[in-house]
Target: Glucose-6-phosphate isomerase
Amino acid sequence: MTVDFAALKSLRSASADRHILDLFAEDSDRASRFSAMADGLLFDYSKTNIDEATRTALFDLLDVAGVPEKREAMFSGEKINDTEGRAVLHTALRNLDGGPVMVDGKDVIPGVRHTLARMDDFADRVRRGTITSYSGVPFENVVNIGIGGSDLGPVMAYEALKPYADGPHCHFVSNVDGAHVHDVLSGLNPQTTLVIVASKTFTTIETMTNAQTARDWLVKAVGEEGISKHFAALSTAKDKTAAFGIDPDLVFGFEDWVGGRYSVWGPIGLSLMLAIGPQRFAEFLRGGQAMDTHFRTAEWQDNLPVLLALVGVWHNQVCGYATRAVLPYEQRLLRLPAYLQQLEMESNGKRVAMDGRALPFDSGPVVWGEPGTNGQHAFYQLIHQGTRVIPCEFMVGRFGHEPGLAHQHELLVSNCLAQSEALLRGRSLAEATEIMRKKGFEGAELKRQAQHRVFPGNRPSTTLAYEKLTPFVLGQIVALYEHRVFVEGVILGINSYDQWGVELGKELALALQPVLAGEADGAGKDGSTLQLVDYLKMNG
Ligand SMILES: O=P(O)(O)OC[C@H]1O[C@](O)(CO)[C@@H](O)[C@@H]1O
Model:
């Protein structure tokens, strides 16, 4: 059933002028009543303008949209991706000790565990040096070639878990820009490099082009006969990996019920597993699995994915804030915003509902961000004093991994907390005037200078706090966001699991390549595209 935001919009209008600080003044227990905890992860959404009545109205959406039924439909393998006729079962990849999950009458779990065991064995042997390069030496470097979900998940997680990485060094090539593959390969010794071609479909032009470049690079060093030792593939398309010449023993397959942006939990996570080892990779899976259990069993008011989703819907569809910033105060989460951009925007950037009718409200928000404190010295100016409201999602850990630098960690945490406090509290004109008066300003110049130093405040933010960024905690965070996307998608009534919006550009690029090469004319192209072709073509 289509949800209706009318009740929420009236609540919004009635409270539009209210300051979030008033909510704290009215309720001394607000912080804990508007927070929830899941296996050590604390989500605090008290610094938003959501009150009891709003929260109740938001909870009502869940039943109207059928979240409980659809959640069970997803976990039990129903084909909820109905524009592609597929189940959505990334949760099966981290189902380490649950029961069977049936797709088309077949339990998929034995296959998942078999592939995981093969990955474990392969990673273990590469790490111990018993699987070697063609010349018989251990692999020191791994290059993952993939794009989108076949890149962002592993690279994000590899960066996040660097303190746990004691295996070969991992490198990631994604862009079809030759600069990327060139710059990565030119720093490496082909004799000790394992190349992983990560592509669900094994047809993505960027990945296949980069894979061919890497192949040529390896052939020069190890010869055609050495190639099979230096390549592995992660894909659903075994016929295509075979056609590329990859040894079937080094192909790790998965099924079409794992979407690209949800695939880091399985074979696509192989580079991460090689880096941190199978045991820590299992901890990552356990974190995801713990979040699955929490999502399926926790009451709405305690349910982190549900709460994140409802805060998101409140800010985006009800308040009309078009973007949200993800601001991890954790340098190693530097790729998390990019990862979440794909996860959230490819999933919920849809213009029509399941039934094909135009959405009567906005689709998912624009997601962006950077780690703190770097962002503070770049775009936070706009967040604090710009005319648009940007809900901020802070993330911060209690401990870093550098015990000798605890003082730096304290500074990091205080910056994170200071930012959400500043957004909430702001600085009034009276306070700004007083500050400037003390600096010696007076009269009209005092007024003018003070205005520039006003912070409106009353700007919403949430904070996700965790003990330490371990593999388990990263698993929890990633699964938390996956389920948040699911709940938002169900409320909006869209299919979060297809991505037709990326197709048109791909088709046009294929058609433009011969035009750029001078092998086809640009009949039917618009004037701007033709002018740019004319300027950019290399052979003319
Ligand atoms: O793993 P593949 O099949 O190469 O696809 C890569 C990416 O391309 C997309 O299909 C979008 O173009 C993503 O959904 C996916 O993660």
Remarks:
- The first strand starts at residue 35 and ends at 38.
- The chain has four domains: 6-65+298-421+461-498, 90-282, 426-459, 502-536.
